[in-house]
Amino acid sequence: MSLAVINSRAQLGLDAPLVRVEVHLSNGLPSLSLVGLPETAVRESKDRVRSAIINSNLSFPQKRITLSLAPADLPKDGGRFDLAIATALLAASSQVPAHSLLQLELLGELGLSGHVRPVRGILPAALAARKAGHALVVPAANAEEAALVPGLTLYAIEHLQQLVDHLNERVPLVPWRSQGLDTDPPAHPDLNQVQGQLAAKRALLVAAAGQHNLLLSGPPGTGKTLLASRLPGLLPPLSHAEALEVAAVQSVTSSQPLQHWPGRPFRQPHHSASGPALVGGGSRPQPGEITLAHHGVLFLDELPEFDRKVLEVLREPLESGVIVISRAAGRLQFPARFQLVAAMNPCPCGYLGDQSGRCNCTPEMVLRYRTKLSGPLLDRIDLHVSVAREPTSLRQVTGQGLSSEQAREQVMAARRYQQQRQGCCNSQLDLDNLHRHCPLGDADRLWLEQACERLQLSLRASHRILKVARTLADMEGITDIRRNHLAEALQYRTQLNS
């Protein structure tokens, strides 16, 4: 047979569109023509494939070869098509039967010896293959990752010859059975290791219970970073669907085995990070830090030191939970349902309001420092907490106060109330559900409206106060929002200005 068609998958953001590798052999001087919008790594595949076939004791066709990657208008990059191209050449030259390839999808990069190397984006490809009803052949190093998709017929190979023997029914491959990933969720430091800071710990617990964004402000050395690093340990475990979403993001950014499955990500970019590093971008858009923090925590330390233009790009994903990157070639959408935790000093020297009286900043300097953060961005952060300096003590304090395990139980109980009532966390309530699930009595509504008017808070800020109050009621297992819940939620909006 001089024509063969093999299924493979490209990588386009977090999607894996189907690519048909078509090979036609015709008479003429030996040559290989590759079409279908291939990029450099794909164009170089013909040399890798030729050596891999020859070094696997197979015959490279001495024909005029036309190789097409369809659809022609979809850019293809990387070495992920090597295995499909080599198999299509073997099928077109009748070295393997073409009929056995109809329900297979092949992914993998070939070494010159014929060994199959891992590639990125296996998990989205596995999800797409299952949806299409196809079996999937992947490098052995990617097998455990692809096996996370239930109901998929999966084959893992280490060498091209194994696939050839399977297709020729000499040594059939056994469907891969997962042995389980060897990575465990990371061990997060315990909350009771933080000395004092009862008010900040309370705010951290509220943030975890309702998935609220949190801003910590205080002098250097007061424990802001310590508190932020404890948040992932307070959050409930990921559901299987959420864990697959997190793993899919990791899959398209690295060909290495998954890390910390199925733990929540904790990302801490440096304040010198650019806009594309934070939200994603590039000529072929790749996920940024906010997508890498999907279903986890994004911690921005020294918040005012970030470029203001960089911080402004957070405003849309904080509301929508997605980031859309537009380029001339098209638009890509990445998930970005992250929980923002930020830390900052109250002034340029860092000691404004400190009991030591060391601050020497003028009001103009403080104002200039704080205006590095825009009002619309601060409006989207639910909890604003001042962290004061605690008395110095070098004694061991571990084991005092609420532990992370005890705090997590409270958080999970509050999250269960939210899921049963509205199917999402309180921070994700839209306007209709906000009024439905956060009803207030006339007196409480009037009190909140007057407080917001007196403090000159926006309508968005008043809605977020209501969501935090709903979380506080859930933490107590109370159906109705009470005045003390509103007062505490309002307090979190006024601490930084006090």
From TrEMBL:
Residues 286-383 form the MCM C-terminal AAA(+) ATPase domain. Keywords: ATP-binding, Nucleotide-binding. GO terms for molecular function: ATP binding; DNA binding. Transmembrane segments: none annotated. It comes from the Bacteria. Residues 257-281 are annotated as: Disordered. The keyword Nucleotide-binding applies. SMART domains: AAA. Pfam families: ChlI, Mg_chelatase, Mg_chelatase_C. InterPro entries: AAA+_ATPase, CHLI-like, MCM_dom, Mg_chelat-rel, Mg_chelat-rel_C, Mg_chelatse_chII-like_cat_dom, P-loop_NTPase, Ribosomal_Su5_D2-typ_SF. Signal peptide: none annotated. Belongs to the Mg-chelatase subunits D/I family. ComM subfamily. This is Magnesium chelatase family protein. It comes from Thiopseudomonas denitrificans.
